[in-house]
Design brief:
This protein is mostly helical. Helix 3 crosses helix 4. The radius of gyration is 15 Å and the shape is globular.
Length: 97
Amino acid sequence: RYGIFCAICHGESGDGGGTVAKLGLNGVRNLHEDGFQEANYPDGLLYHVITHGKGMMGAYGMNIPVEDRWAIVAYVRAMQEAREVSAEDLVQKGEGQ
């Protein structure tokens, strides 16, 4: 669902560089900014924004089922976490197996 509803604006990687942003819509948020990390932006708030919209972002509550909205929250958190892993960490993990 992220790829269908969110990536068009926020980009496949969540960096805010989706198609809509490339066409000139300013203000598309980068989901990797510190302000969107879970400590600053709890899962419930992210879910609320997906459901009800915020600023220029429209509401998706009527288009995306509840379970899928929570799955998008989990996917965003996984993208954020993956971005924090360094290449060295991946090499060390691979050697440990």
